[in-house]
Design goal:
CATH superfamily: Ribonuclease H-like superfamily/Ribonuclease H
Largest sheet: 5 strands, mixed
Distance between the termini: 23 Å
CATH class: Alpha Beta
Shape: globular
Strand content: 5-15%
Mean pLDDT: 94
CATH topology: Nucleotidyltransferase, domain 5
CATH architecture: 2-Layer Sandwich
Strand order of the largest sheet: 3-2-1-4-5
Order of helices and strands: EHHEEHEHHEHHHHHH
Length: 264
């Protein structure tokens, strides 16, 4: 198995918003209030168009040769361009199967727009057979190919009205779901300087996605019941070990997971 499960966290790109709406005299706080209020009035939601998002965290679970790790790219000082470059460099290096929850509808388009902004090259990610012939029939960007699996999208049979939030799906399957934060609280945490909390939250989200993906593989018959149990045990062992290395949020995730009723 060579998979890379990913999740991003974003805040509004306040500098871009001030330029687009000619709000140069507004502070960050006032810009945030103004743009979210505008979209709430105009569109009925404060969720902004994807090109107005700025990436502040990218978290990953990698399973390579049945060795599992979870981490966030870069450091607390890393800028957006560095995070995105690291993400695409990982694809260049490992050619993993990408796994996401709503990656097609959110994470990947945001990564595309921001990579374009920063002039980042991601040749293998975009390859459709021009560089490697096998990518003509199985690449990252074709919706029906296998190098990227958007678990939410495929479970809903690509019907928007059938989609489910990750938190609710995770809890339904006996996993922790959201812990300590939610997507609409990320900007508030960022404004308070709590990037560490955002990265921790993103890591728990990507762990939920990985666990749902394992159940999906089991449903498809790609791993046996014993294989599923072994994969979950490997993850539990890793979480316990990492929780002893000054990563208490992973220990809390493990405790919450073990305390949930098992759905199987």
């Amino acid at each position: 198995m060579n998979i890379l499960v990913f999740d991003i966290e974003t805040i509004p790109d306040l500098r871009l918003i001030r330029t687009l709406y000619d709000w140069q005299d507004l502070s960050d706080e006032d810009t945030y209030t103004a743009i979210t209020s505008k979209f709430l009035v105009d569109k009925g939601t404060s969720f902004l168009p994807l090109h107005l998002h700025q990436i502040v965290a990218i978290s990953l679970v990698m399973n390579q040769d049945d060795q599992v790790k979870v981490w966030s790219l870069g450091t607390h000082e890393s800028g957006e361009a560095d995070l995105i470059q690291r993400f695409y460099s990982g694809i260049e290096r490992f050619t993993p199967t990408l796994v996401s929850w709503n990656g097609t509808g959110f994470d990947l388009p945001v990564l595309h727009y921001r990579a374009l902004k920063h002039g980042i090259v991601a040749a293998q990610y975009w390859d459709a057979g021009d560089i490697r012939s096998e990518f003509k029939y199985n690449n990252y960007v074709n919706r029906y190919h296998q190098r990227h699996t958007d678990v939410m999208d495929i479970l809903a049979l690509f019907q928007g009205r059938a989609t489910v939030k990750l938190d609710q799906m995770a809890v339904m399957l006996g996993f922790p779901g959201k812990m300590g934060m939610a997507g609409d609280k990320v900007y508030e945490a960022y404004a308070q300087g709590n990037l560490a909390g955002i990265r921790d939250y993103c890591e728990t989200d990507v762990l939920n996605t990985y666990l749902v993906y394992l159940r999906f593989l089991h449903m498809k018959g790609q791993i046996s019941p014993d294989g599923l149990a072994q994969a979950e045990q490997v993850l539990q062992d890793m979480l316990f070990h990492e929780s002893q290395q000054d990563r208490p949020h992973l220990g809390l995730f493990l405790d919450n997971w073990l305390g949930q009723p098992d759905s199987i």
